Amino acid sequence: MKDDLEFDMEMAREYDKGIRRALPTYDALFRMVQSFLRANVEDSANVLVIGAGGGNEIVTFGTANPTWTFSGVDPSEAMLEVALQKAKNEGIEERVSIHIGTIEEIEFNETFDAATCLLVLHFVETIEEKLSLLKTVRERLKPGSPFVLVSMFGDQSHPEFDERMNLWKSIWLDLTDLTQEDVEAMEESVRELSFIPASQIEELLQQAGFERVTQFFSTTLFGGWIAHSKK
Ligand SMILES: C[S@@+](CC[C@H](N)C(=O)[O-])C[C@H]1O[C@@H](n2cnc3c(N)ncnc32)[C@H](O)[C@@H]1O
């Protein structure tokens, strides 16, 4: 287990470096998400973190907001171990509970004051599964609670998508030693992910029971939306 954990900590360190190349505004995104949550919750908020693997939401928001508690959900046990280890390193583990599985699989005996789902939805393959995830988030929230969704998005058949993809590849080429061939291969695997257009993400959020759905963020292939669970 320990060896696995070390391997996973290494993976997590790689993730922390890699995500800032894949998404150069990752840290700015987290600052904006925190400001939105702070503006919309009371002092002692319980926050549901969907796709908590690696622990960045829990640690970033947990250290800066000492009265918040967190429930992190993720199907990857290994990545949740990393999240818990990071929480322990920061001395905030008493305010953190972790739950292995998808949000639909986990029963909670409480409802939440806020939720985030950052960089997860493009891994959820079908529209039905995306809607089910969002509906379940809605059910787990108190009415009127803030929710932040960040995902890769776009219509792959649209020329605008190609322009955003080209910029995404240019950033990798600028920031790393990767070759043109490397980034072409990355493009191929990224295109396998489940992209849907911004308008469809907004429709799904509305269908799931969210209102005041507003896009607040866009960087290359990634978009972010703020919303509130319907009252
Ligand atoms: C790219 S990481 C994002 C981690 C973190 N939210 C962040 O912003 O850095 C995606 C995470 O989503 C998790 N994941 C994939 N499918 C999921 C699902 N259906 N429900 C919850 N988490 C899921 C993966 O296990 C992984 O830990």
Automatic annotation (TrEMBL):
The keyword Methyltransferase applies. It comes from Paenisporosarcina quisquiliarum. Residues 48-145 form the Methyltransferase type domain. Coiled coil: none annotated. Keywords: Methyltransferase, Transferase. This is Class I SAM-dependent methyltransferase. SUPFAM superfamilies: S-adenosyl-L-methionine-dependent methyltransferases (SSF53335). GO terms for molecular function: methyltransferase activity. GO terms for biological process: methylation. It holds the Pfam family Methyltransf_12.
